[in-house]
Write a sequence for this structure.
């Protein structure tokens, strides 16, 4: 049944967090402009009911949690903000393994420029999957785009980033959870690992 509401009861629709991520597909090629510096974290992923459930930890070697869940392995991940050139230069979160991000480290070492700084430029990322799907053999080929390297952000890009960056706070999105929160998120358990 429809109900009449006051104007102050109408909330803005919440954006879907997954819409904020740049999903790298097997065999795909992407053009991005990195923004600032990446963050590092450890991530658990569990597939349940044909859905993936994710939890973040800052202590993947917590012995009590490992004893209770020896099947779980936390993966080291990094995330950075990017402008996704193929998607109307929208602000996105690029998350990936060390193998992806070490390419930007090599660039930094070779040219001495922070890849996420105003002095940097666009990068092309190619996802190479020998097995046809993303797995442990996936490789990432990253190269600066010659005509877009060492190109400062435009005034329009700076303004867009400033207006939208508050919705992309990586420290909040990838905040570490307690063992109890991790179990609840991954297994829908509320009474779990005791913390001393």
């Amino acid at each position: 049944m429809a109900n009449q509401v006051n104007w102050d009861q109408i909330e803005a629709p919440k954006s879907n967090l997954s819409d904020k991520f740049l999903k790298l597909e097997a065999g795909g090629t992407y053009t991005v402009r990195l923004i600032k510096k990446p963050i590092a974290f450890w991530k658990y992923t569990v597939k349940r009911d044909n859905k993936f459930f994710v939890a973040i930890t800052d202590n993947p070697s917590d012995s009590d949690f490992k004893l209770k869940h020896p099947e779980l392995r936390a993966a080291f991940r990094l995330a950075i903000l990017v402008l996704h050139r193929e998607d109307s230069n929208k602000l996105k979160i690029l998350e990936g393994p060390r193998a992806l991000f070490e390419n930007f480290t090599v660039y930094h070492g070779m040219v001495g420029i922070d890849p996420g700084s105003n002095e940097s430029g666009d990068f092309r990322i190619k996802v190479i999957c020998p097995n046809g799907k993303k797995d442990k053999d996936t490789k990432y080929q990253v190269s600066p785009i010659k005509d877009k390297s060492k190109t400062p952000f435009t005034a329009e890009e700076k303004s867009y980033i400033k207006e939208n960056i508050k919705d992309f706070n990586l420290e909040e999105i990838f905040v570490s959870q307690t063992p109890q929160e991790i179990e609840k998120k991954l297994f829908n358990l509320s009474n779990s690992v005791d913390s001393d």
Remarks:
- Confidence is low (pLDDT under 50) at residues 191-196.
